[in-house]
Design goal:
The protein is an alpha+beta fold and about 550 residues long. It contains 17 helices and 22 strands. It has a domain at about 295-515: Roll (Dipeptide-binding Protein, domain 3). It has helices at about 20-30, 80-85, 135-145, 185, 195-205, 255-265, 280-285, 315-320, 325-330, 355-360, 370-380, 395-415, 425, 430, 455-460, 475-485, 490-505, and strands at about 15, 60-65, 90, 95, 100-105, 105-115, 115-120, 160-170, 170-175, 195, 220-225, 230-235, 245-250, 270, 290-305, 340, 385-390, 415-420, 440-450, 510-525, 525, 545.
Length: about 550
C-alpha cells in the first residue's frame, strides 16, 4: 500500500521462520512506490504523510459522515466503525502508514510450515480495565470472528482455519486446513483484533454499543452520545508510544455541507472522506491543508441482483460502455481521481514482478464511451425499455453523482434506471444486510483493499463470498481463487491473480469506474494524521498533535 509517516513501532522483522514463506510474503507486502504525482493528470498529488506533530493537545475533534451502528470488531466493516476502532482496539499484526505489514500485539509471527502460523505476543500489554493480555484472550477474540452465531463480517478470513490454540501463556498457534497467503495479512485488520475475554463476556449483547471495548489501544472508549458524538480518552497504560492528545472527539455530521462548514469554521479539526464537492473550497480556504494519499480504493457500480436485465452480461457491458467516467471523475471526485477499467488499483500490484503487472492490466474493461455499441448490446439482449434501480445517497457527490451518471447512461442506451435514496446512516447496511438490498439492482461502492494484495477484492466473486451480492458462481473462478490463496510465492500468486482480474473484467459483476485517493483535511492547529488508507487499522489518532 502507500506511503506515510513512519510508524511509532519498532521495525523488527515482520515475519520470521520458514524462509520460503516469510520472505515471499513480505515481497508481496512491500507497498506501492513512494508518493508523488498521481499519474492521472488530474491536478492532484499524493503526499506520503503530514508533518509530524510538535506538541500535545488537550483534545481534537474529527468529523465522521455517519454514526457507527456498533464498534464490535466482528462487525467493523465500514469507514465509520474502523476510523474510530483502529485507535481503541489493536490486532496481532499492524498495517503501517506505508501500507506494509509490521508487528502489532504479536511481536513475532512465524511460519514453521505452510499450514501453521505462530504468534508470539508482547508481554506486559494491558487492557483498558487494567488486566494483562494473555494468549487466552487472543484465542477467544479470534474465535468470535469464526463463530457462526456472530455472523462476523470477517468470517471469510477464517475459512481455511482448522484450529486456534494457546500453545503458551503468550503464544497462539493457528493451524490451517491448507496454505493461505492471505490469512497472515488479515491479522493486521480488524479480523486480528484482541479484546479482553472477561470484558466481552461481561458486556454480553451490549458489547460494542455501550460501555468499554476492553481493548489495548492508545485510546479507550469514553462517552457515546447517541446520534451526536463519541469521545475517546487517552489510555495512560498503553504499551507503546502514548497518544499526543488527551481526548479525541468524533462528531457525526451526515450532511456533506455541514461537515465542510464545520471544518472551515474550526468546529472540527479535520476528517477523512472529505466531500468531493468541497475539495476546491477547502484547498483555497487558508484555514488548513487538504492532503491526498494512497487509498487502494476503486469506485465501482456493484450489481446486487441478476434477476432482472443485469442477469445478461451484455447489459452490464452496455452500461459500462455508456458511462461517462471522465465526467464523473471531474464532477463526482472533484478531479482527484483516475479513470480506470480495472477493479483493483495499480498500487496493490506494486509488489509483483513487472510481467505480472502487465498481464493484470491487459485487455480490461474499456473506459472510452461507445454509445452506439452499448445500444446494440441492449437491443441484442432484448432489454430495451427494461427498468433497473440503483441506490443513491446524500453521503457525498461521489455516491449521488455516480448514481446519476448511471441513470443518464441508461437513458442514452434504452434502459429506464430509477434512483432509490438511502439515508447516510443506512448506507452501511447495503454491504452487510441482504434485506437492505431488496429492490435494488446495483449501488455505488468505493471499495478499499484491507491488505496489499489484489485477492482482497478479487475473492469477492468467489461462490458464497461476503460481498458477492448477486450470487455469482463459477467453479473455474473459484478454483483460481483457491490456487492464489494457497500460493505464498508472490510471482506465482500474482500470475494467478492476473487471470482472476481478467475473468472479473469479463463478467462485470462490479463495473469499475475510477481510482480514488484518500483525502484528509487538517486545520492549522493540528497535524500528524497519516494520509493513507492505513487509518482504518492503524492507531492514527495517537499521532495527531499540535503543529507547534
Amino acid at each position: 500500500m502507500p506511503p506515510t509517516a513512519l510508524p511509532r513501532l519498532r521495525r523488527a522483522a515482520v515475519l520470521t521462520a520458514a524462509a520460503f514463506t516469510s520472505f515471499s510474503l513480505l515481497a508481496a507486502c512491500s507497498g506501492p512506490p513512494a508518493a508523488g504525482p498521481s499519474g492521472g493528470g488530474a491536478g492532484f498529488q499524493l503526499s506520503p504523510d503530514t508533518p509530524a506533530a510538535k506538541g500535545e493537545l488537550d483534545s481534537f475533534t474529527w468529523a465522521l459522515y455517519a454514526e457507527p451502528p456498533t464498534l464490535d470488531p466482528t462487525m467493523a466493516f465500514d469507514y465509520p466503525q474502523n476510523t474510530i476502532l483502529s485507535n481503541v482496539c489493536e490486532s496481532l499484526m499492524r498495517w503501517t502508514p506505508q501500507l506494509t505489514l509490521a508487528p502489532g500485539l504479536a511481536e513475532k509471527a512465524s511460519n514453521p510450515d505452510p499450514t501453521t502460523w505462530v504468534y508470539d505476543l508482547r508481554s506486559g500489554v494491558h487492557f483498558h480495565d487494567g488486566s494483562v493480555m494473555t494468549a487466552e484472550d487472543a484465542v477467544y477474540s479470534l474465535g468470535r470472528q469464526m463463530d457462526p452465531e456472530n455472523a462476523a463480517a470477517w468470517a471469510q478470513v477464517f475459512q481455511n482455519v482448522d484450529s486456534i490454540t494457546a500453545t503458551g501463556p503468550l503464544q497462539v498457534t493457528v493451524k490451517l486446513k491448507q496454505p493461505d497467503s492471505q490469512f497472515p495479512q488479515y491479522m493486521a485488520t480488524a479480523a486480528g483484533t484482541v479484546a479482553a475475554k472477561a470484558g466481552v463476556e461481561a458486556a454480553g449483547k451490549d458489547y460494542g454499543t455501550s460501555g468499554s471495548l476492553d481493548c489495548t489501544g492508545p485510546f479507550k472508549l469514553g462517552s457515546w452520545a447517541k446520534g451526536q458524538s463519541i469521545e475517546l480518552q487517552r489510555f495512560d497504560g498503553y504499551w507503546g508510544t502514548k497518544a499526543k492528545s488527551a481526548k479525541a472527539v468524533f462528531r457525526f455530521l451526515t450532511d456533506p455541507s455541514a461537515r465542510t462548514n464545520a471544518m472551515l469554521s474550526g468546529e472540527v479539526d479535520g476528517g477523512y472522506l472529505i466531500p468531493t464537492e468541497s475539495y476546491d473550497r477547502l484547498k483555497k480556504s487558508g484555514v488548513g491543508t487538504l492532503y491526498f494519499g494512497e487509498g487502494l480504493s476503486t469506485v465501482n457500480v456493484n450489481v446486487t441482483s441478476t434477476k432482472g436485465a443485469l442477469g445478461d452480461v451484455r447489459v452490464r457491458k452496455a452500461l459500462s460502455l455508456a458511462l461517462d467516467r471522465s465526467g464523473f471523475v471531474k464532477a463526482g471526485l472533484g478531479g482527484a481521481g483516475t479513470v480506470t477499467g480495472s477493479l483493483t488499483t495499480k498500487a496493490v500490484w506494486a509488489g509483483f514482478p513487472e510481467a505480472v503487472r502487465t498481464d493484470a492490466f491487459a485487455h480490461l474493461t474499456p473506459t472510452t464511451q461507445d454509445i452506439e455499441q452499448a445500444k446494440a448490446l441492449v437491443k441484442e439482449a432484448g432489454a430495451t425499455g427494461k427498468t433497473l434501480t440503483i441506490a443513491t445517497s446524500s453521503i457525498g457527490q461521489d455516491v449521488s453523482l455516480l448514481a446519476t451518471a448511471v441513470q443518464n447512461a441508461g437513458a442514452r442506451i434504452g434502459l429506464d434506471i430509477q434512483l432509490k435514496t438511502i439515508a447516510p446512516n443506512a448506507f452501511t447496511a447495503l454491504f452487510t444486510d441482504p434485506q437492505a438490498r431488496e429492490g435494488l439492482d446495483m449501488f455505488p461502492e468505493t471499495y478499499y483493499d484491507s491488505i496489499t494484495d489484489p485477492l482482497d477484492l478479487l475473492s469477492n466473486f468467489k461462490t458464497g463470498a461476503y460481498q458477492n451480492y448477486p450470487g455469482f458462481s463459477d467453479k473455474a473462478y473459484d478454483d483460481l481463487v483457491d490456487q492464489a490463496a494457497a500460493e505464498y510465492d508472490p510471482a506465482k500468486r500474482g500470475a494467478i491473480e492476473a487471470k482472476l482480474q481478467q475473468a472479473a473484467s469479463e463478467q462485470l459483476m462490479w463495473i469499475p469506474v475510477a481510482e480514488w485517493p484518500t483525502a484528509v483535511f487538517l486545520n492549522k492547529r493540528v497535524t500528524g494524521a497519516p494520509t493513507t488508507i492505513c487509518y482504518l487499522y492503524y492507531p492514527w489518532a495517537a499521532d495527531v498533535g499540535a503543529t507547534r
